[in-house]
Amino acid sequence: MAFRWPQFFHKLGSPRWFYRIGGLWLPWLAGIAACFLVIGAIWGLAFAPEDFKQGNSYRIIFVHVPSAFIALAGYYVMATAGAISLIWKMKLADIALKCAAPIGAAMTVLALISGATWGKPTWGTWWVWDARNTSMLVLLFLYLGIYALYNAFEREEQAARICAVLALVGTVNIPIIYKSVDWWFTLHQPATIKLTEPTTMHASMWQPLLLMIVGFYVLYTTLLIERIRVEILVRERRTRWVQDIVLASGA
Amino acid sequence: MLAEEQIPGALQACRGTFKRDLLLAMRRSGDIVNPLVFALIVVTLFPLGIGPEKSTLTAIAPGLVWVVALLACLLSVDRVFRDDYLDGTLQQMLLSPQPSYFLVLAKVTVHWLVSGLAVTLVAPLLALMLSLAGGGYLPLLVSLLLGTVSLSMIGAIGAALTVGLKRGGVLVALIVLPLYVPVLIFGAGAVEAGCQGLPYSGHLAILAALTLMALVLAPLAIGGALRINMDD
Q: For residue A55, which phi and psi values (nearest 5 degrees)?
């Protein structure tokens, strides 16, 4: 049987089908994420060599860098969902936008906290106004703005479209904010702080890091799909098929 | 019903909106003066909190004047579309045959005249109170003149997004302040460079670029946001 993309794609846009297909994917995705994260974490924490300057403290990179990746990518996932919601008015895109915001914000917080924890042994202080810290903090504020704006509206549909506009404005702004903060930091850079991050990593260090990054991406996808499925159930609670699922689960 | 040729063109409608909004703004002069008084009071608070030492104040003056000016602009931005939304004028504007781009541009320009421009004119006084170094005054004026335009534009996006909400105030600040970061960095950077006797034309050029981009793109976002808030 020929696999017809267009039809498959359209089905994915309907909440009911997404609930089913997502449900089929979920165990696989969760399994893959767990494999990558467990192997990457054990490899990174126990087997990767010690850094000759920072000792063991550098190992927080295996959490810090992947979460920072996801924090930024998550914003673009959210903005893409927003654009789809504005252009094609797809219900599922609305839901994806709503669900992507808290996960992205959580990843940003994780990146900030792990960065602070790394900063303590390396720089001797929890918080430094360095370019990356600062732009991560601004990114968190952007996420919080979207989250607060969404919750201020009563009608979900309107909230999603309003937040989509804000997400797109943010998308235009993020590169500018990053560049300007970067530039600001090179001007004000205090002399006492040295960035000890190695510019060239040995293969034995970046291989587990790569595993962790892939693991985080799959984990993000898993969490997003799961959240979307829950949200679908809540929104479609009055439809027959949701009521059938609830009855079947014996609730 | 007007005949086809009687319908005012886009520019004519833009001019009409501009005149109307300016007249309304002038009749509510309290709205112009209050943010300026706010800026004056905030600037007074800093020496009281930090200490009156001149060297300390001179060191922080460039950034401080810019932050205070930015907050003063933010204070009134919530009102740009609020009144017109509540009495239905905004709906008529969006329904009119003229592109909303120009109408929005006119409204935001008026807001800039009564907030950004006013703050720019008061800024030298604020700088004097914080004993800004002599070389900083000219870049302060020019950077505020350029920068406050984009502050008004970005702020109006926040105002348009929240216009349908009963309580917009703090939310607008929350949405808009992170987007103000680049403008603040380059504005304060220009003043700082001027104080140290360094060339500052690069900062101003980037600031002008940001402002031009805001002028081109922001009205689109504002128009979209207003339309979404309209369909109830």
A: 65, -140
